[in-house]
Structures are given as C-alpha cells and as structure tokens.
C-alpha cells in the first residue's frame, strides 16, 4: 500500500498524480489518497523600494512556476495558475470521508481546480465532484469535512508530513515527486 498525501491546490501534487498512478500500476500497489492542506502563495508584488528578501521571494516564486509549467508541458497538461490560490479545504475534508478507492475523486478534484478553475470550498461544487466519482455519493457537509480534515492533518503531521505530495511506504516518508524512483524500488521489494 502506498499512502499519498495531496492538496488539490498544490501544483507539485497535481503534476505527481499521473506518474504516481503509473508507478502504482506497474507494481500493482493500491494507493491510499490522503488530504494534507498546504499554503500556496501568489507571486508577490514588489514595492518601489523592495528589500533583498522581498526580491528573492518574488524571483523564487516565478522560478517555481516556470519549473512547474515545464513539467506540465512534458505531461501535456495545461497549467493555469490562479491569480490568488483558492481554498480547497472542503474538498480535502470530503476526500477523507470517502470510503473505498478515492482515485476518481482525486482526479476529478485536481481537474476541477487546475483546468475548470472550480471553487473547491463550495459545497455544491464538491458534492457534484463526489456524485460523479464516488460509488456511494454523499453531500459535502462543511462541518463534517472540517472535522475530517483536522483529524487527517493532525495524523499526517504526526508522521512528519510538511508538504504535498508526500508518500508513506514501508514506514518511510518521502516529500516530493522526485522520490518516485526510490519509492518504486521499495514497491518492488514489497512485491
């Protein structure tokens, strides 16, 4: 079993979905998708007299976006960054309430955020995603989803998760999709 912590607003997590699924398929390993909220910052505007630190943050944010866009192009994905990152907490809480295989929901939520620019904190939007991708649909209740997300976040932080995507396998934690080759070796040794 491969546990993967994601946040739908994380471009790194979105770009990891396809390669992660391909790796799991090659090793016949089920994926346990888990929610972990991250903070995505917009590219900051610089004041007229910007400090070195402010300039560095802007340059670094722009560089990260260029790298993400390059990887998206390699996967033939259109990566459209929102001007302001939108919230995804309701959709993440709903992820934790889904029983069984969560893959279709994860794919639908990432597509909704990155391609359709959907509001994943809107109950109607999240309920619709659940209805189209889950065997036993339910309504996205904000209170239940908030409690489920809080519990999941606390459990992930206890494991050492600090960003998404994060992978847990064989009692080991890996942060970032760049570790997929090593994770593949662990999956092969488990098989």
From TrEMBL:
The keyword Isomerase applies. Keywords: Isomerase. The keyword Isomerase applies. Residues 3-181 form the DSBA-like thioredoxin domain. It comes from the Bacteria. One of its GO terms (molecular function) is isomerase activity. InterPro entries: DSBA-like_thioredoxin_dom, Thioredoxin-like_sf. Pfam families: DSBA. This is 2-hydroxychromene-2-carboxylate isomerase.
């Amino acid at each position: 079993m491969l546990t993967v912590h994601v946040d739908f607003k994380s471009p790194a997590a979105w770009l990891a979905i396809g390669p992660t699924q391909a790796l799991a398929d090659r090793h016949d390993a089920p994926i346990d998708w888990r929610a972990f909220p991250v903070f995505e910052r917009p590219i900051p505007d610089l004041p007229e007299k910007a400090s070195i630190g402010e300039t560095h943050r802007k340059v670094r944010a722009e560089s990260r976006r260029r790298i993400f866009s390059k990887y998206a192009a390699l996967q033939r994905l259109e990566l459209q960054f929102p001007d302001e990152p939108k919230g995804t907490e309701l959709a993440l809480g709903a992820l934790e309430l889904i029983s069984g295989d969560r893959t279709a929901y994860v794919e639908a939520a990432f597509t909704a955020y990155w391609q359709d620019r959907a509001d994943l904190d809107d109950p109607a939007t999240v309920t619709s995603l659940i209805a189209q991708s889950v065997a036993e649909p339910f309504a996205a209740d904000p209170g239940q989803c908030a409690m489920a997300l809080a519990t999941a976040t606390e459990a992930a932080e206890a494991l050492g998760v600090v960003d998404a995507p994060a992978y847990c396998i064989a009692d080991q934690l890996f942060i970032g999709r760049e570790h997929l080759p090593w994770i593949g070796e662990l999956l092969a040794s488990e098989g």
